[in-house]
Amino acid sequence: MLIDWFTVIAQILNFLILVWLLKHFFYKPILNAIDAREKKVADELANAEAKKTDAQREKEDFKRKKEELDQQRIALLSKAKDEAKTESLHLIEEARKEAFDLMSRQQEALRNEKQNLNQAIRHRAQQEVFAIARKTLIDLAETSLEERTVEVFSRKLHELKDEEKKQIALELSASPRSLLVLTAFDLPQEQRDLIKKTITETLGIEIQAKFETAPELVSGIELITNGLKVAWSIGDYLTSLEKGINELLEKQPKS
Amino acid sequence: MRLSPDELIFWQYGFIKLNATIMYTWGLMLIMIVSSKIITSKLSSGLNRSIWQNFLEIIVTTILTQIEQVGLSRPRKYLGFLGTLFLSIAVASLCTIIPDYEPPTGSLSTTAALAISVFVAVPIFGIEEQGVGEYLRSYTEPTLIMLPFNIISEISRTLALAIRLFGNMMSGTMIIAILLTITPFFFPIFMTALGLLTGMVQAYIFSILATVYIAAATRTHKAKPEIGE
Lengths: 255, 229
Known about the structure:
The structure holds 2 protein chains of 2 kinds. In chain A, strand 3 and strand 4 (about 230-235) form a beta hairpin. By secondary structure, chain A is α+β, with helices and mostly antiparallel strands. Chain A has helices at about 5-140, 145-160, 160-175, 190-205, 235-255; strands at about 180-185, 210-215, 220-225, 230-235. Chain A is built from 5 helices and 4 strands, in the order H-H-H-E-H-E-E-E-H. Helices cover about 80% and strands about 5% of the residues of chain A. A 4-stranded mixed β-sheet of chain A has the order 2-1-3-4. The longest helix of chain A has about 140 residues, at about 5-140. Chain B is mainly alpha-helical. Chain B has one domain. Chain B is about 75% helix and about 5% strand. Chain B has a two-stranded antiparallel ribbon. The longest helix of chain B is centred in the last third of the chain and has 43 residues, at about 185-230. Chain B starts with 8 loop residues before the first strand and ends with a helix. The interface between A and B is large, with 34 and 47 residues.
């Protein structure tokens, strides 16, 4: 007989015992170890994924911030450039204005200086001419300057055209007391009489002349009625001299 | 000449006896349990682990994959029974390289015991999965006429399991024994190597057939709606 039934029963029991023992000592620990490891790996993968996501988010964040900063920087730079440009234009404008003011002031000063100088020259020339004329007249003709002036004025009156004489006479006859004789110096009585006499002779009318002193006439005489004026003075010569000097001064800076 | 290790009896008291089959089985059990205990006592759940742990993990995961591929959706539930079937037959075959060793699977009593275990386990798993009525009804599928044939098929496949394994293991041992007397030295070595291969193939066949039977018993109920679809 090939089958021994006791052995069969014993082997069934042995097999069942082996199943229980292997389950307990072999399958269970091995499966537990595998599960634990798989869980660990899954955890690590999940962790890595989370870190990757975090890193990605951080990267996006950083990129966004960088872009913002770049934009801000560009905006600030542009603003600063604009401000600098405006400021520079402003400064240039101010400098130009200041330069213009300075130039104007310098020109003004120069003009004033020239004017002062002219005045001084004129004054001095007047005095010099006056003195020279006086001295020359005294030395040569033994006549004072005043006398000679009155003479010259009398001659001028005589030399007036007839129409002019008529017009003056007409004016004076309308208001006989309005004749005013202005002189640069105080005239002696005989000179006054001489002037009166010359007027009477020249115009053919008797007048009441009023004599006044006006130093700005520069050794001259003026005869003033209501609207007419007959004058002679060396002021005209002085004006001519002044003009000549001015021309000379204006030529000076150019050279 | 001894055909089976059953015939080598060390101790007997009436019906109870200790023969070579039982003794070798105990020896194999001891080896398996002790080595498992030693290796699993130093298990690591980290990425660094010993070669032996890797080896055992490969065995366990391969068995699980095989069970799942046959069609059992929860392989861990059947790992204890099916895995132990495969491992006990495989270890019994592997040990044939030890001189004077006779595999307990070369005894028809052992193979019968294993076949009976499968014969009992199939309805237990089937009933557990789909209930008594549903399981018993599966014997009348597709028609009631098929009931006796299904029952015959159930018994005959159990017999086939037992005799296939017994025949293969016994013949291997027998061939080596015969060849040793005729042509000693080298030729038996080749036959032993061939016997190892045969043993592994038989372990695989036995356990995969048991898996198929269990799968067939547990999937009848679930397969129906799939066909209907």
